[in-house]
Amino acid sequence: MVGTLPVFFKIPVARALSTHIRHGTYPPDKTRVTYCYPPVPHPARRRNEGMKPLDNRREILRCFEAFKATVSL
Question: 0.85 exceeded by the pTM?
Fold first, then answer.
């Protein structure tokens, strides 16, 4: 891997999950994690180019702004 490319994760943290994390235990229910690899113009070159090309950065930042609207940052 040469370039860097973010992956966006959305993890719903309920009170029960927070309590289990605090105590170092596993919750009885599974936590559904949603992730997104930004759709760059040339997906086959994603690992090598990362954020170097401007068109990749444009798409990544567009995804970041959209993702930011779905979570409370």
Answer: no
Task: Give yes or no for a contact between 36 and 63, defined as CB atoms under 8 angstroms apart.
Answer: yes
Residues 60 and 54 sit within 8 Å (Cβ to Cβ): no
CA distance 12 to 30: 11
Who contacts 3 (Cβ-Cβ below 8 Å, separation ≥6)?
Answer: 47, 48, 49, 50, 51, 52
pLDDT tens for the 73 residues of the chain, in order: 567 889 989 888 899 999 999 999 999 999 999 898 899 998 888 888 888 899 999 999 999 998 888 876 5
Amino acid at 3: G
Q: Output helix, strand, coil percentages for the chain, rounded to the nearest 5.
A: 45, 10, 45
